[in-house]
DNA sequence: AAGTGGTCTAGACCACGTC
DNA sequence: ACGTGGTCTAGACCACTTT
C-alpha cells in the first residue's frame, strides 16, 4: 500500500514547532515563565494534553524547565545548574568549587579553512578568537581557544570578557541573545606544546586531552568552535553512558 | 505544612518497578516481545495510559524498544545498533566498519583495593581479568583490561572469548544472562607504556586516552570495571552534549 | 480483518507553590 | 483559596504490521 501521508507529523509536534518559533523569536526571555499549558492550549486550539506532550519533549531537550506548582520556564545558562551540562571536567578529589574563567586574549581575524567549515561560514568571513584559561581552586586546568562568527557577536571585546563574572555561555545569552542548545565534542590525546605547557604549568610533552567542540543554537546553527586542552593530572572528563 | 506523603510514588512508577522486576527475573528474554499494553494494563489493573507512561520511561532508558504495529521488545546487545551505545570511538575518515575484538589473555585473580571498590565486592573475592585488543579495519586502536566479578561469570575462559563472534556485552547477555544497562566513563590523557605501545604499534610515550569504565546491570549493581587505552592517531572519542 | 503501538480528547483529581 | 504542573482514566481514532 502507498503511504497516504509520507510527511505525516502529529499535532503535538506541530505545536512544538510553534513554541520553538516563539522561543527563537524571543517572545519569552531565558529564565522567564512561558504561558500555562491551559493558555497555550487555548492559543493553539488543541487540548491541554497535546500541549503537554510538546512541552515534555522540549523539557527532555533542556529547552524548557518544568516546575510543579510554579510554571514552565525558558532554560537559561545563567542557571548555575547549567554550567556542568557542557563542562564535563571533574576534580579527582571531589572538590565541587566552581571554575574561574580568565581571559588571556581576544582578537579579530578572517576565517580559515577549518574555521569556515566548522562554523558554516564563508572563507575569509570575520571571526573573533578568544583565548582563555580555566582554573579550579586557583590551579590552571584548561586552555581554550574559541572561534566565533564575527557578525553574531558584535562588540565582543577583551574588556567585556574581563568584566563578566559567570560562564561564557551566560555572557553570550545575556549580551547577544544567543542560546547554546547542544554541542558535539571530539576528544583526542595530545602532547603539550611549549605555550600550552607554560599556561597549564605542566612539563612540555605532558599528555593532555584535546577537546574540540562545536556548539549549536536554534535550528542547528553552529555558532562556536573551540579547542580545549585539559590537564588531567588532578581532573578527569566524566561521561555517563545511558 | 507537613507533607502528607513524603514517599509518594505515582502509579505508573510502581508499574514500572513491576515490569522492571519481571525483566530482571527473566520473564521475557532480550530481543523478545513483552505483552501488549492492553494485556499489561489488565494484568496490573490499571488503564492502558498508565502502562504506556511506564513503558515510555523504560524506552527512554534503552531498556525496552517500541516498534509501532509490532509490539514492545526487550533491548538486547545482540542488536548491532547497540554496539556504539557504549563505544564512542569514531574513525576520523568516516569509515563505518565494525571493530574486531581480539582476546589477548584471560586469567583468574583476587580483587585488590581498587577492583573491590569499583565492583562493590569484598577484598580478595575472586575476579576474572581479560585483556583484549580492538581493531578497526585491521589496525589496533584500543587495548582493554577488563575486571569481572568471578561469581557472576562462571566458566568464562579464553577459549569462550575466542569462539565468540560479536561484542563482549552480547556474550555476557547470551552466556550469563547479564544485561548491561548503563556505564560511567572517566577519561584522562596518559603516555603509552612499553607493553601498550607494542600492542597498539605506536612509539613509547605517545599520548593515549585512558578510559576507565564502570558498567552497571539491573539495580545499579556494578558488574564490570575496565580500563581502555585508546590510540587517537586516526580516531577520536565522540560525545554529544544535550 | 485483526492486533499493535501512537495520537488526541475531555474530565476528574492530586501535589506543589503562592497569595 | 487559587493556579500551576502531574497523574489517571476512558474512549475514539490513526498509522503500521501481520495474517
Textual characterization of the structure:
The structure is a homodimer of 242-residue chains. With 242 residues, chain A is of the alpha+beta class. Chain A has 2 domains: 11-74, Orthogonal Bundle (Arc Repressor Mutant, subunit A); 80-237, Chorismate lyase-like (Chorismate lyase, 3-Layer(aba) Sandwich). Helices cover 28% and strands 34% of the residues of chain A. Chain A is built from 8 helices and 10 strands. The first copy, chain A, has a 6-stranded antiparallel β-sheet. In chain A, strands 1-2 form a two-stranded antiparallel ribbon. In chain A, strand 5 and strand 6 (139-149) form a beta hairpin. In chain A, helix 1 packs across helix 3 and helix 2 packs across helix 3 (48-60). The longest helix of chain A is centred in the first third of the chain and has 14 residues, at 11-24. Chain A is globular and about 65 Å long. Chain A binds chain B through residues 60-62, 85-86, 88, 182-191, 205, 207-209, 213, 230, 232, 236-242, and chain B through 60-62, 85-86, 88, 182-191, 205, 207-209, 213, 230, 232, 236-242. Strand 10 of chain A pairs antiparallel with strand 7 of chain B. Chain B binds a DNA duplex (19 and 19 nucleotides) through helix 3.
